[in-house]
Design goal:
globular, single chain, Aspartate Aminotransferase, domain 2, about 15% strand, alpha/beta, Aspartate Aminotransferase, domain 1, 7-stranded mixed β-sheet, 4-stranded antiparallel β-sheet
Length: about 375
């Protein structure tokens, strides 16, 4: 089986974790690795502050919690995303409002945002889907006009750039995941980055149960979202490799695009002229000019030992969101279509050229069989 993803790590990461364990850095309350990872990753994002947490989901949860939203407040977000983006809003008793996708990058359609803003709208979460950045310059102009907080969901986009600037630091807060299949990994883990000191202090307090003075006096309801020291030590080593990993991903994407470029009916991933796409996963859509449906193609590939994944079910279709008080039924026809037609291919950074050719040959041959 050619897996859809395998993380890129080795003996250096193992040695880093062992060293942290020998230093006693088991919890997330002491040691040097967490601070080193936070400072290093924040600097990579051209940010002043990083707050390491247990996952990308808790990074989003923490960022939303820092806003002190009132029940019923609304947060606009990309319709095509992992459910974690919307769950962070639900955890704050707020209302997630999906913004439909645009067809070229599959990110949220900026033309639709102002039509969805109401007096209850407080924030917007753009998702840099599959590693292609949202046009943050234009988004920030809209947000400023309407006094909205912007939180980037950059879980899939470590190192992606909008007009030469790294995502995550292009808004009030940026949230990253270090899950096993992300650009760099700590196994599980995440981080919020920001350039605002007060925001960073608020995030750090909420991450650690919102302790105050005296120690067990709590004025706010915090969380235990602490990353462990040995996870951070793993991340410190991964961070040293991030540019090389991104280079591998971009090379992999170039090879896929070269081999699949002449196959009719496929929409391959874009890279706008203002963007730097890190191709977290090599994603495509299967259109009507391809003689198989997306599901038929996925079944065909699986039977030949090639693993794939579909795009995300859009937020406008999620039952757990539709059942929430204040739910707004927003039509998202493009995101619906992406859910039906989108597929991403094996995207491990160390995938061999032969494996890539095997995948592409099977897709091309399947397209000629029916």
């Amino acid at each position: 089986m050619i897996p859809v993803f395998e993380p890129d790590f080795g003996e250096d990461e193992i040695a880093g974790v062992v060293a942290a364990l020998r230093r006693g850095e088991i919890s997330g309350s002491f040691g040097t690795a967490i601070a080193e990872f936070e400072e290093g990753f924040a600097a990579f994002c051209d940010c002043r502050y990083g707050v390491a947490v247990t996952s990308g989901t808790t990074a989003l949860h923490l960022a939303i919690a820092a806003l002190d939203l009132a029940p019923g407040d609304e947060v606009l977000l990309s319709a095509s995303t992992n459910i974690a983006t919307a769950l962070a809003v639900i955890y704050a008793n707020a209302v997630p409002v999906p913004v439909d996708s645009e067809r070229e990058t599959w990110n949220l359609d900026l033309d639709l945002i102002e039509g969805l803003i109401t007096p209850r709208t407080r924030a917007i979460i753009p998702v840099h889907l599959f590693g292609h950045p949202v046009d943050m310059d234009r988004l920030n102009q809209i947000a400023k006009k309407h006094n909205l907080v912007v939180i980037e969901d950059a879980a899939e986009a470590h190192g992606a750039k909008c007009r030469g600037r790294v995502v995550g630091g292009l808004s009030d807060m940026g949230c990253f995941s270090f899950y096993a299949n992300k650009v760099i990994t700590t196994g599980e883990g995440g981080m919020v980055v920001t350039n605002d000191l007060k925001t960073a202090e608020r995030l750090r307090s909420l991450r650690n149960l919102a302790f105050t003075t005296p120690r067990y006096w709590h004025e706010h309801a915090g969380f235990n979202f602490r990353m462990t020291g040995y996870q951070a030590a793993f991340g410190v080593v991964q961070l040293k490799k991030i540019d090389a990993i991104i280079g591998k991903k971009r090379k992999l994407a170039q090879r896929y695009s070269h081999l699949l470029g002449e196959v009719p009916g496929l929409q391959l991933p874009a890279q706008m002229d203002w963007a730097f796409n890190v191709y977290w996963m090599y994603a495509l859509t299967v259109g009507p000019d391809y003689p198989m449906s997306r599901d038929q193609l996925a079944t065909h590939l699986k039977a030949r030992g090639i693993d794939t994944r579909t795009f995300f079910c859009p937020m406008n279709q999620q039952p757990c969101l539709q059942q929430r008080p204040g739910y707004r039924a927003v039509a998202c026809p493009v995101a619906d279509e992406l859910w039906e037609t989108g597929l991403y291919l094996p995207s491990s950074p160390n995938l061999s050229d032969d494996d890539v050719k095997t995948v592409c040959d099977e897709i091309a041959q399947a397209g000629r069989r029916l």
